[in-house]
Each structure stands twice: as C-alpha cells, then as structure tokens.
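Reply to dn_fold:

You asked what the input looked like. This is it:
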Amino acid sequence: MLISGSGLTASNEDFSDDPTGQGSIIINRYLQAAEADSFSNAKNGPLEVEIEASVPKLNEHGHLKALRKISAVGKITYRVLGFQGDNTIKNQVIARYLQAEQQGQDDKSLTLSPANYKFKLKGMKVADGGGNVYVFQVSPRKKRVGLFKGEVWLDTQSYLPVLEKGRLVKNPSVFFRQVDFQREFAILNGSAVPERMSSVIDTRLVGKVNLSVAYSSPAAVEAEDGVAEEASFTPTRN
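and this is what came back:
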C-alpha cells in the first residue's frame, strides 16, 4: 500500500458529483490519518509473510516464507526463511512481486492521493468483519504502471484503508494481459497493517498466474535450518 505524503488535500473540485462535500471531508481525514500512519510503520514490528504462487497450465507452484521489516524511514526489506517448490515460480513470479513492492515504496507518483487519483464516494456499508466502511471508487489521473482502477474502503473510525481492489491500468510487463488484485488491512494501534493480498495475472505465454500473500506476527524470527538470506531479489532472465 502506498499512502499520501504531506501537503496533499482534496478539494470540492475533486468531487464534482458530490455537492454536499462529504467525499472531500472524508478523503481529507484519510490523508491526515495516512500521514500519521507513515510515521508509525516501523513501530508495528516485523511481519511474517507467506507467499503462495502457482501457474496451473505448467502445474508449477511455490511457497515462500519470509520476514518483512519496515525501517524507521519506511524502507521495506525481506529476510527469506524458507522456500519450497519450483525455482521458476520463485525467480519469475515471487521475486518479481517482492522487487516491485520494494521499488515502488518511495514513488510519490503511485500514492493513493488526490494528486494521482479521482475519488467518488459510493456510500457506506458494513464490511465482512462487521465494521462500517466508506466505499470510494478510484480511477487514476494518468495511465501509469502501479496505478489501478477499482475501489478503496476506508474505516469510518480511523479513516484508514481496510481494503483496496481493482485492476492495474497499465501492465508492468509486456507478457501480462491484465492484473487483478485485492489487498486487505487490519487497523492496529492507529496503523493500517497488511493482512492478505491476492492477485490473478493473465499472461500471454503461460496463461493464468495465481499469487496470494498472508501476513502475521512472527512467532520467532530465526531462520529455518539456517537458510536465511536478505531478499534483495533480482528475477532470473530467461
């Protein structure tokens, strides 16, 4: 998740179909909450990440377990705890996902903010977990890799996102036809903490690729069987 930086505000001009101005008020509160959240990421501690990926057409799959850390300045790093499965999945699917997350973390042109997106308030609903959320339809102002068209759900108490879902408006690879995803967050101690992410990628060469990521607090940070490594991934080129 990329959230807004300082100095960004939503005006009524961003919500021409919202004469009451409610959408603008909600988004400005979201921006304030997101700004505070950006300074508290490091306080949440490391998260254990389990990534499942598969290519059904090739009957290949892989499972990677890693420790995800966010530094005081917001830099994301991964420490691999173990991997099982086909190396093609590790190098061409999982590695590319982790590399894209690390590369996009400091890109202000990808933040979920009025500078990059148009927001349309669709209403309020009850989320699956029972809490109330504001539902916004979002569409990017430019067709850029990393931006998406879809929905954002904001918690009505904290104004932080609990769900983002949609389709990337520009494919990150010429081998991709389309990328659909859904990201879910839990609100803990005033921060939006990742819970799970799922993605379905339609590729030109091998058909559908499934990718899912689950996050949890680690029971232990020691590597399995001494195989820990810093996950500065570079995908293998075929």
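The helical segments are 22-38, 87-104.
Hope that clears it up.
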